[in-house]
Amino acid sequence: MAAHFPKSVLMVSLAFGSWCFGQTTGNPSSTKEKPSIYIDGHDYPQFDPVSNYAWFRIHFPLAEGTEISIGGDHYRTYFADRFNVPIQFKQYFSEKSYLLGGYQLEWDLLNKGSGRPNPTPLQEVFFGVGHDIQPSWSMEARLVQPVGKQEFHKVGFPKGKTRLELGTRLKF
After folding, report:
1. Domains defined along the chain, listed by start
2. Which of 55, 6, 64 minimizes the C-alpha distance to 35?
3. Sheet order of strands, 38-43 included
4. Minimal CA–CA distance to 121: which of 149, 144, 80?
5. Rounded Cα gap, residues 66 and 101, in angstroms
6. Whole-prediction pTM value?
7. Would you give per-residue pLDDT tens digits along the chain (172 residues)?
8. Neighbour tally for 43: CB within 10 Å
9. Alpha-helical runs (H) found in the chain
10. From its phi and psi, is residue 26 left (phi > 0), alpha (psi between -120 and 50) or beta?
C-alpha cells in the first residue's frame, strides 16, 4: 500500500536530509568556494495596526561579480497597499562598483478601494549604478521608466513619468 504524506512533511524531511548530508567532516579545504544562493530582507517594525513595509531578495550568483536576483516588496499604509516583484541583473565592473538593470511588476492591492487586487500590474524597467562603500554599506542610483499601459501609478509620483531613485543600504 502506498502511504500518502502531506507536502509539508515531505518538504521538511528533504530540507533536514539536505542539511544533514551537507555537513563538512574533517578539515574543510582551504580553497575559496563560489558563493551559493543567498537570501536577504528586512521587515520594519509596525507602529500602528495597518502600516508596514517589508522586503526580501533571493540572489543567484552566476559567475565572479555577476548575479541575478528576484524579490518582493510589500508597502502598506492607510491609503495604499502595494506589492512589487523586481528581477535584477547586477554586474561588477570594478572591485566595489557595479551596473544593475532589471524589470519590476507592482500590484495595487487596494485597487481604488474595491477590496480586490488590480489584475493589471504596473510594469517598469530600470538601470543604474551602485558602489559598495564598505562591506556592510552600499549606495545605488537608478533610473526607472514605466512601460506599457498603466492603470495606476507609483505612490507619490505622477502617472507615466520616469524617475531617479537614490538609495543606500546598511547591513548589520
Report:
1. 35-170 (2.40.160)
2. 64
3. 38-43, 52-63, 66-76, 81-92, 97-108, 122-134, 137-147, 163-170
4. 149
5. 12
6. 0.73
7. 444 445 555 455 555 555 444 444 445 454 555 568 888 888 888 888 888 899 999 999 999 999 999 999 999 988 889 999 999 999 999 999 999 999 999 999 988 767 778 888 999 999 999 999 998 899 999 999 999 888 787 877 777 789 999 999 887 7
8. 11
9. 7-21
10. left
Q: What is the C-alpha to C-alpha distance for residues 155 and 161, in angstroms, rounded to an integer?
A: 12
Q: Which residues pair with 128 in a beta bridge?
A: 100, 142
* Contacts of the segment 158-163: beta carbons below 8 A, 24+ positions apart: none
Assigned C-alpha cell, 138:
552600499
The residue whose grid cell reads 502598506 is: 76
